[in-house]
Model the fold of this input.
Amino acid sequence: MKKGLVMEGGAMRGLFTAGITDVFMENGIRFDGGIGTSAGAAFGCNYKSGQIGRVLRYNKEYCADKRYISMSGLLKTGNLYSSDFCYHEIPEKLDKFDFDAFNEDPMEFYITCTNIETGLAVHHKHDKDRDDFYTFLEWIRASCAMPMVEQIVEIDGLKLLDGGVADSVPVKFFEEIGYDRNVVILTQPLTYVKKKIKYGAAAKAMYHEYPKLTEAMLDRHERYNEDYEYIHEKELKGELLVIRPDDSLNIKVSNKPEELQRVYNIGRHMGLAELKRVQEFLEI
Done:
């Protein structure tokens, strides 16, 4: 039996996931492997490094800081979230990410990105012998790089953007590589249905050199809804365990610390409520 943790993205909805994973850490819930997409990777990696509370702490501290996120930064650099401040200044200096602890922990960790030349998902397995701290942070940045508001990230000859375009909830991938006892953290309620993007023409114009990317962006809602249905069907059969919010979290990008705390608290409450069920499912 291989125990896996699958974490959906969703920008600041990821604080819901952080609340759950903090509860997991506090109660000794461990997995053989974890995989995250976008915020699921950026926040979920703190589970492997064992840093309880870090996600909430640095987001509350810097969410209103223009060095962190700003429209002026988008206009100047092409990045809504500052690549230097978010992916270097904070994790390297201001609120250090414990990369040594991350590497020493035996749990496998995968980061989901989208290859813009193929429109397909790239599931990068972190390799401590190959990926230095800078490379690791670049993979996280690529996974979170939202189309239209973030620059393309190039790593190892690959041109990458937000993993959510190609594989928002990489359950099937984890099953394919042998993870057969998976806990899935979703950031949308059971009733959620994703709609087709309204900026398709703008996307085609912006990424005219990458038609496979725009195809993936335009039909993302279909794959996303199919994956949600697949997950729910397996959940009903008891083949995986899903933790999701009961209602919409009603948060996107926010510069209000109290809103981030609210979403985190919902995750903590859900994590505590589901703790016994998770322990039984994982046979802990």
Q: What stands out?
A: Strands lie at 3-7, 33-37, 108-115, 120-125, 153-155, 158-162, 181-185, 240-243. The radius of gyration is 18 Å. The first helix runs from residue 14 to 26.
